[in-house]
Amino acid sequence: MTVPSTTPDWAYEREHWRRGHFRVAGVDEAGRGAWAGPLTVAAVILPGTSQEYPFRDSKQLSPAAREEYAAEVRRVAVAWAVEHAWPEEIDRLNVLGATHAAALRAIARLEPPPQALVTDYLRLRADLPLSAPPRADALSYSVAAASLLAKTERDRLMRELDAEFPGYGFAAHKGYGAPAHRAALRELGVTEQHRRSYAPIRALLAAPEPLL
Protein backbone atom coordinates (compact mmCIF):
# COMPACT_ATOMS: atom_id res chain seq x y z
CA MET A 1 0.00 0.00 0.00
CA THR A 2 1.38 3.42 -0.95
CA VAL A 3 1.76 5.77 2.02
CA PRO A 4 0.94 9.43 1.25
CA SER A 5 3.75 11.97 1.36
CA THR A 6 2.23 14.13 4.12
CA THR A 7 3.39 12.50 7.34
CA PRO A 8 2.03 13.50 10.76
CA ASP A 9 4.28 13.72 13.80
CA TRP A 10 4.07 14.32 17.56
CA ALA A 11 4.95 18.04 17.63
CA TYR A 12 1.65 19.23 19.11
CA GLU A 13 1.42 16.33 21.54
CA ARG A 14 4.98 16.99 22.74
CA GLU A 15 4.02 20.52 23.73
CA HIS A 16 1.55 19.00 26.18
CA TRP A 17 3.86 16.16 27.26
CA ARG A 18 6.47 18.72 28.32
CA ARG A 19 3.89 20.19 30.69
CA GLY A 20 3.14 16.78 32.21
CA HIS A 21 -0.05 16.15 30.23
CA PHE A 22 0.63 12.71 28.80
CA ARG A 23 -2.92 11.65 27.86
CA VAL A 24 -3.51 13.86 24.84
CA ALA A 25 -6.72 13.30 22.87
CA GLY A 26 -6.87 14.07 19.19
CA VAL A 27 -10.31 15.21 18.00
CA ASP A 28 -11.65 15.39 14.45
CA GLU A 29 -14.96 15.32 12.59
CA ALA A 30 -16.42 14.09 9.33
CA GLY A 31 -19.48 15.24 7.43
CA ARG A 32 -19.77 18.95 8.26
CA GLY A 33 -20.46 19.87 4.65
CA ALA A 34 -22.87 17.04 3.84
CA TRP A 35 -26.52 17.80 3.17
CA ALA A 36 -27.76 14.62 4.83
CA GLY A 37 -26.87 12.17 7.56
CA PRO A 38 -24.94 12.72 10.76
CA LEU A 39 -21.93 14.79 11.52
CA THR A 40 -19.51 12.42 13.25
CA VAL A 41 -16.79 13.31 15.76
CA ALA A 42 -14.10 11.01 17.12
CA ALA A 43 -11.68 11.46 20.01
CA VAL A 44 -8.58 9.27 20.36
CA ILE A 45 -5.81 8.99 22.94
CA LEU A 46 -2.78 7.20 21.53
CA PRO A 47 0.01 5.82 23.74
CA GLY A 48 2.27 8.66 24.88
CA THR A 49 5.37 7.63 22.98
CA SER A 50 7.22 8.80 19.91
CA GLN A 51 6.31 5.69 17.93
CA GLU A 52 5.53 6.23 14.26
CA TYR A 53 2.18 5.05 12.91
CA PRO A 54 0.79 4.70 9.39
CA PHE A 55 -2.16 6.93 10.35
CA ARG A 56 -2.89 9.79 7.97
CA ASP A 57 -5.61 12.32 7.34
CA SER A 58 -8.48 10.15 6.14
CA LYS A 59 -8.95 12.33 3.05
CA GLN A 60 -5.53 11.20 1.79
CA LEU A 61 -6.41 7.50 1.86
CA SER A 62 -8.45 5.03 -0.14
CA PRO A 63 -11.55 3.53 1.51
CA ALA A 64 -9.73 0.21 2.01
CA ALA A 65 -6.75 1.92 3.65
CA ARG A 66 -9.04 3.96 5.90
CA GLU A 67 -10.73 0.80 7.16
CA GLU A 68 -7.41 -0.95 7.74
CA TYR A 69 -5.92 1.96 9.66
CA ALA A 70 -9.11 2.63 11.63
CA ALA A 71 -8.97 -0.96 12.90
CA GLU A 72 -5.36 -0.35 13.92
CA VAL A 73 -6.37 2.83 15.77
CA ARG A 74 -8.95 0.91 17.78
CA ARG A 75 -6.37 -1.78 18.53
CA VAL A 76 -3.57 0.48 19.82
CA ALA A 77 -5.47 3.41 21.36
CA VAL A 78 -5.43 4.01 25.08
CA ALA A 79 -9.02 5.24 24.67
CA TRP A 80 -11.34 6.21 21.83
CA ALA A 81 -14.93 7.34 21.38
CA VAL A 82 -17.21 8.33 18.52
CA GLU A 83 -20.29 10.55 18.75
CA HIS A 84 -22.81 11.82 16.20
CA ALA A 85 -24.84 14.97 15.69
CA TRP A 86 -27.90 14.07 13.65
CA PRO A 87 -29.78 16.52 11.39
CA GLU A 88 -32.23 17.64 14.09
CA GLU A 89 -29.36 18.72 16.34
CA ILE A 90 -27.48 20.34 13.45
CA ASP A 91 -30.57 22.31 12.46
CA ARG A 92 -31.20 23.34 16.06
CA LEU A 93 -27.67 24.36 17.04
CA ASN A 94 -26.14 25.12 13.59
CA VAL A 95 -23.32 22.96 12.26
CA LEU A 96 -20.56 24.53 14.37
CA GLY A 97 -22.58 24.27 17.57
CA ALA A 98 -23.45 20.66 16.81
CA THR A 99 -19.79 19.88 16.09
CA HIS A 100 -18.78 21.30 19.47
CA ALA A 101 -21.55 19.40 21.26
CA ALA A 102 -20.65 16.08 19.67
CA ALA A 103 -16.94 16.65 20.30
CA LEU A 104 -17.53 17.33 23.98
CA ARG A 105 -19.67 14.18 24.26
CA ALA A 106 -16.90 12.11 22.68
CA ILE A 107 -14.25 13.59 24.97
CA ALA A 108 -16.42 12.93 28.04
CA ARG A 109 -16.62 9.23 27.12
CA LEU A 110 -12.85 8.70 27.07
CA GLU A 111 -11.59 6.46 29.86
CA PRO A 112 -9.05 7.22 31.14
CA PRO A 113 -9.90 10.89 30.61
CA PRO A 114 -7.61 13.13 28.58
CA GLN A 115 -5.31 15.70 30.13
CA ALA A 116 -5.04 17.85 26.99
CA LEU A 117 -6.54 18.12 23.51
CA VAL A 118 -5.37 18.61 19.93
CA THR A 119 -8.11 19.46 17.42
CA ASP A 120 -8.31 20.35 13.76
CA TYR A 121 -8.90 24.09 14.26
CA LEU A 122 -11.84 23.39 16.57
CA ARG A 123 -11.64 25.80 19.50
CA LEU A 124 -13.58 23.81 22.04
CA ARG A 125 -14.70 25.28 25.33
CA ALA A 126 -13.25 22.46 27.37
CA ASP A 127 -11.53 22.82 30.72
CA LEU A 128 -8.35 21.28 29.32
CA PRO A 129 -5.18 22.60 27.65
CA LEU A 130 -5.97 22.88 23.95
CA SER A 131 -4.00 23.09 20.71
CA ALA A 132 -6.18 23.82 17.66
CA PRO A 133 -3.95 24.28 14.61
CA PRO A 134 -5.35 24.25 11.08
CA ARG A 135 -4.80 21.04 9.12
CA ALA A 136 -4.10 19.12 12.32
CA ASP A 137 -5.51 15.97 10.73
CA ALA A 138 -2.49 16.00 8.40
CA LEU A 139 0.03 17.11 11.05
CA SER A 140 -0.80 15.25 14.27
CA TYR A 141 -0.88 11.48 14.74
CA SER A 142 -3.65 11.79 17.34
CA VAL A 143 -5.88 13.92 15.13
CA ALA A 144 -5.18 11.74 12.09
CA ALA A 145 -6.29 8.73 14.16
CA ALA A 146 -9.49 10.55 15.12
CA SER A 147 -10.13 11.47 11.48
CA LEU A 148 -9.92 7.80 10.52
CA LEU A 149 -12.48 6.74 13.11
CA ALA A 150 -14.84 9.62 12.31
CA LYS A 151 -14.74 9.02 8.56
CA THR A 152 -15.11 5.23 8.62
CA GLU A 153 -17.89 5.29 11.20
CA ARG A 154 -19.81 7.97 9.29
CA ASP A 155 -19.39 6.07 6.02
CA ARG A 156 -20.78 2.96 7.71
CA LEU A 157 -23.86 4.87 8.84
CA MET A 158 -24.36 6.35 5.38
CA ARG A 159 -24.36 2.85 3.92
CA GLU A 160 -27.08 1.93 6.42
CA LEU A 161 -29.07 5.03 5.46
CA ASP A 162 -28.70 4.06 1.81
CA ALA A 163 -30.65 0.89 2.55
CA GLU A 164 -33.24 2.76 4.63
CA PHE A 165 -33.74 5.48 2.00
CA PRO A 166 -33.25 3.79 -1.38
CA GLY A 167 -32.79 5.95 -4.42
CA TYR A 168 -30.77 8.76 -2.85
CA GLY A 169 -27.35 7.19 -3.36
CA PHE A 170 -26.15 7.84 0.18
CA ALA A 171 -23.65 4.96 0.02
CA ALA A 172 -21.95 6.57 -2.98
CA HIS A 173 -21.90 10.32 -2.23
CA LYS A 174 -22.25 10.08 1.58
CA GLY A 175 -24.87 12.82 1.68
CA TYR A 176 -22.82 15.52 -0.03
CA GLY A 177 -24.21 17.73 -2.81
CA ALA A 178 -23.29 15.51 -5.74
CA PRO A 179 -25.29 15.73 -9.00
CA ALA A 180 -26.89 12.34 -8.27
CA HIS A 181 -28.01 13.60 -4.85
CA ARG A 182 -29.52 16.74 -6.41
CA ALA A 183 -31.37 14.62 -8.96
CA ALA A 184 -32.73 12.31 -6.24
CA LEU A 185 -33.97 15.28 -4.22
CA ARG A 186 -35.81 16.62 -7.28
CA GLU A 187 -37.43 13.25 -7.86
CA LEU A 188 -37.98 11.91 -4.35
CA GLY A 189 -38.03 14.97 -2.11
CA VAL A 190 -36.45 15.73 1.26
CA THR A 191 -36.14 13.06 3.95
CA GLU A 192 -35.84 13.25 7.73
CA GLN A 193 -32.11 12.69 7.26
CA HIS A 194 -31.63 15.95 5.34
CA ARG A 195 -30.34 19.06 7.09
CA ARG A 196 -33.16 21.52 6.61
CA SER A 197 -31.11 24.51 7.77
CA TYR A 198 -28.66 24.06 4.88
CA ALA A 199 -29.33 26.52 2.07
CA PRO A 200 -29.93 24.02 -0.79
CA ILE A 201 -32.39 21.98 1.29
CA ARG A 202 -34.07 25.09 2.72
CA ALA A 203 -34.47 26.52 -0.77
CA LEU A 204 -35.95 23.27 -2.07
CA LEU A 205 -38.50 23.16 0.74
CA ALA A 206 -39.48 26.78 0.21
CA ALA A 207 -39.73 26.79 -3.57
CA PRO A 208 -42.92 25.95 -5.45
CA GLU A 209 -40.69 24.38 -8.08
CA PRO A 210 -37.45 22.44 -7.48
CA LEU A 211 -34.37 24.67 -7.53
CA LEU A 212 -31.68 21.99 -7.43
Cα shape: elongated
Which spans of ≥5 residues are poorly predicted at pLDDT below 50? 1-5
Number of helices: 9
Corresponding CATH superfamily of the largest domain: Ribonuclease H-like superfamily/Ribonuclease H
Main beta-sheet annotation: 5 strands, mixed
Mean pLDDT reading: 94
Protein name: Ribonuclease
Cofactor: Mg(2+); Mn(2+)
GO molecular function: metal ion binding; RNA binding; RNA-DNA hybrid ribonuclease activity
Domain RNase H type-2: 22-210
What this model shows, in words?
With 212 residues, the protein is of the alpha/beta class. The chain has two domains: 11-161, Nucleotidyltransferase, domain 5 (2-Layer Sandwich), CATH 3.30.420; 164-206, no CATH class. It is 43% helix and 13% strand. It is built from nine helices and five strands, in the order H-E-E-H-E-H-H-E-E-H-H-H-H-H. The protein has a five-stranded mixed beta sheet with strand order 3-2-1-4-5, with helices on both faces. A hairpin with an 8-residue loop joins strand 1 (24-30) and strand 2 (39-45). The protein is elongated and about 60 Å long. Mean pLDDT is 94; it is low at 1-5.
Ordered list of secondary-structure elements with their pairings:
Elements: H1 11-17, E1 24-30, E2 39-45, H2 63-76, E3 79-85, H3 87-93, H4 95-108, E4 116-119, E5 130-131, H5 136-139, H6 141-164, H7 170-173, H8 179-188, H9 199-206
Parallel strand pairs: 1-4, 4-5
Antiparallel strand pairs: 1-2, 2-3
Organism: Deinococcus radiodurans (strain ATCC 13939 / DSM 20539 / JCM 16871 / CCUG 27074 / LMG 4051 / NBRC 15346 / NCIMB 9279 / VKM B-1422 / R1)
GO biological process, one term: mismatch repair
Protein name: Ribonuclease
